[in-house]
């Protein structure tokens, strides 16, 4: 199975089995401005440090990299706004706190593993070291679950309507040759407002 077929099947599963997500904002992730898609008034601090966010973003980009040499070019985690999407999800006060706790405990465990082996944070490792750490981490209790959680949020960012913050300009839809449903939501009729 090629990457595109795998991602299409996986992303379809995420859409079918995942409930709608609400969004929030943060000044320390986007200094000086608030992304236009984040307007929730029921937000909380997800409780992650800058170093932890850097490790999460590095994980997203490692497990879902872009490949602009492919035909068609495949977007990566950065291209689909996976960081902003995950921050918005974790900042939503209506989400179960278990989501925040799972993400936080996982990144703490991954960081400890990296520091113990390389004396560096995950985001400071080269690609080979990152792969080694993720392969080691997936065999630890909760490791596979954490990696799949992070990947699941990347898939959601890939496939969501752009009005919710991921999939800018429908980049994921274009790549998967997906025709979105109609009518599409506007900023005034999103389900989380």
Automatic annotation (TrEMBL):
Kindly name one Pfam family recorded for this protein.
Gluconate_2-dh3
Q: Which InterPro entries match?
A: Gluconate_2DH_su3
Record's protein name: Tat (Twin-arginine translocation) pathway signal sequence domain protein
According to its UniProt entry, this protein's organism is: hydrothermal vent metagenome
Query: What does the organism's lineage look like at the top?
Result: unclassified sequences, metagenomes, ecological metagenomes
